[in-house]
Write a structure and sequence with these properties.
Layout (H helix, E strand, L loop, with lengths): L2 H21 L6 H13 L8 H7 L22 E3 L6 E5 L23 E3 L8 E2 L12 E3 L5 E4 L12 E3 L8 E2 L4 H8 L5 E3 L19 E3 L7 E2 L12 E3 L3 E6 L14 E3 L3 E3 L15 E3 L6 E2 L13 E3 L4 E5 L11 E3 L4 E3 L3
Parallel strand pairs: 2-3, 3-5, 4-6, 5-7, 6-8, 7-9, 9-10, 10-12, 11-13, 12-14, 13-15, 14-16, 16-18, 17-19, 18-20, 19-21
Antiparallel strand pairs: 1-2
Bound molecules: 2-acetamido-2-deoxy-beta-D-glucopyranose (10 copies).
Length: 351
């Protein structure tokens, strides 16, 4: 074959392969199917492993990995999603799947390096540490390892995942997980795209740094041993919808006195059992979207603060366990109020 013919032949081969590959649906790469099957075999199903699924999420767990087998394309397996163009596995959602077993850092899961969404929540990996290898999933936008009995320290490598929008690592075992010194600060600093952060009951034991994602819509850190003063900037996040910092008695919270940038978006504010200082400012009355407010056991004193009387959309209001005194009259204006808790104060109904 002379050169021209060879080039033509090569061109023909490449083109025909291209046409061939475009006309076929992409199949899951063999090595990724194998990695998934190996993962499946590491975790026998025990329905009890997802007990909290029904308790917390209200739906029954079911064993997604049970039907995975070699005879079908892994892109069609329950909980597995592939990229339509490349065929790579980009999403694995095994929430509430009854998986039980030790999660080692040699797990075949870490071969799925194109994952963008990974949800392993509500399983039972009792006695497993969160491997630092999770930090190698550099394309991840969603990571959920909640309520799966992981213990020990959340690896600092999680802060390499700079594309994360959603990070949920909640635990029901109080302080069974910890952030480790400075890690929380680095995490917030580095994950500049975060929209949702949930770390319930993780022992964070540090202050909330000044530098964090301006896209946060959900910041949920109850029962995390937070200390210091809550940065006012939290209240100025213009997309913030849900702020839950309850049960952090050493966290000092002071509301901004002027306008809040989050005032139009904020729907739920849970600040139960925090170290509240200062008054409820007039600016509070601009929280026009607020549906749920919990400021129980938060050291509120004096009469019921006037600005609370303007929150006409509030459906539940908890002010119990404070030092509030005087008459209860303003509440007649809450048209939507369904739940009101004022116990353990010195309030009285007007006579
Ligand atoms: C699940 O829990 C129930 C009640 O606690 C127990 O009787 C049963 O043996 C458990 N099943 C497995 C497979 O561990
Ligand atoms: C293999 O997987 C397919 C699709 O999930 C399922 O319909 C079939 O029952 C499975 N076969 C076995 C032997 O489990
Ligand atoms: C993975 O690591 C665990 C614990 O170190 C070990 O028991 C297991 O055999 C390893 N599995 C493989 C496939 O290497
Ligand atoms: C996984 O699926 C559940 C519903 O089955 C859904 O609520 C959850 O958001 C999914 N996780 C991710 C990371 O998309
Ligand atoms: C922050 O992310 C960058 C980019 O991924 C990484 O190089 C750096 O090491 C990360 N820093 C920390 C403290 O994790
Ligand atoms: C939380 O972590 C801090 C610092 O790492 C430690 O001193 C403290 O004892 C931990 N608290 C609990 C309840 O585990
Ligand atoms: C947060 O950190 C980034 C990157 O280090 C920096 O560009 C930005 O100015 C910091 N923002 C604040 C409010 O400190
Ligand atoms: C409030 O939002 C405006 C417009 O996005 C911005 O210019 C301003 O700096 C924000 N204020 C605070 C305190 O973050
Ligand atoms: C609560 O905040 C005040 C400052 O307003 C501070 O003096 C006090 O030590 C804090 N209490 C706790 C338990 O952190
Ligand atoms: C709050 O309500 C009072 C009277 O109930 C009213 O005078 C005041 O303008 C309201 N403030 C806002 C910001 O809506």
């Amino acid at each position: 074959m002379d050169c021209v013919k060879l080039v033509f032949f090569m061109l023909y081969t490449i083109l025909s392969q291209l046409v061939f590959s475009l006309s076929l649906p992409h199949l899951c790469p063999k090595d990724q199917a194998l990695a998934l099957l190996q993962f499946k075999n590491m975790f026998p199903i025990n329905p009890n492993a997802s007990d909290y699924c029904f308790k917390f999420k209200g739906f029954h767990s079911y064993p997604k990995t049970l039907t995975w087998n070699r005879s079908t394309d892994c892109c069609s397996w329950d909980g597995v999603h592939c990229d339509k163009m490349t065929g790579q596995v980009i999403e694995l959602n095994l929430t509430c799947s009854g998986l039980q077993g030790k999660f080692h850092s040699n797990s075949s899961l870490f071969q799925l390096c194109n994952l963008r969404r990974l949800d392993l929540s509500y399983n039972n990996f009792f006695g497993s540490l969160i491997s630092s290898k999770f930090g190698e999933f550099s394309s991840l936008t969603h990571l959920d390892l909640s309520v799966s009995s992981f213990s020990g320290q959340i690896p600092s490598e999680i802060s390499y995942l700079t594309n994360l929008n959603i990070l949920r690592i909640t635990t029901v075992d109080p302080y069974g997980l910890r952030a480790g010194p400075h890690n929380f600060e680095l995490l917030l600093k580095n994950l500049t795209q975060l929209r949702e952060l949930k770390l319930d009951s993780v022992n964070i034991s540090s202050t909330i740094p000044l530098n964090f994602s301006s896209y946060l819509t959900v910041l949920q850190l109850p029962y995390t041993q937070l200390r210091g003063v809550l940065p006012e900037r939290v209240f100025h996040l213009s997309n913030l919808e849900f702020l839950h910092l309850s049960s952090n008695p050493q966290l000092t919270v002071r509301f901004p006195t002027t306008t809040w940038n989050s005032s139009a978006s904020l729907m739920k504010l849970y600040l139960y059992d925090v170290n509240f200082t200062g008054r409820i400012p007039e600016s509070f009355s601009h929280l026009t979207s607020l549906h749920e407010l919990d400021m129980g056991y938060s050291n509120l004193a004096g009469p019921i603060p006037k600005p609370l009387g303007n929150l006409s959309h509030v459906e539940s209001l908890f002010l119990n366990g404070n030092y509030l005194e005087g008459p209860i009259s303003q509440f007649s204006i809450f048209e939507k109020l369904k739940m009101l808790s004022l116990g353990n104060n010195n309030l009285r109904w007007p006579t």
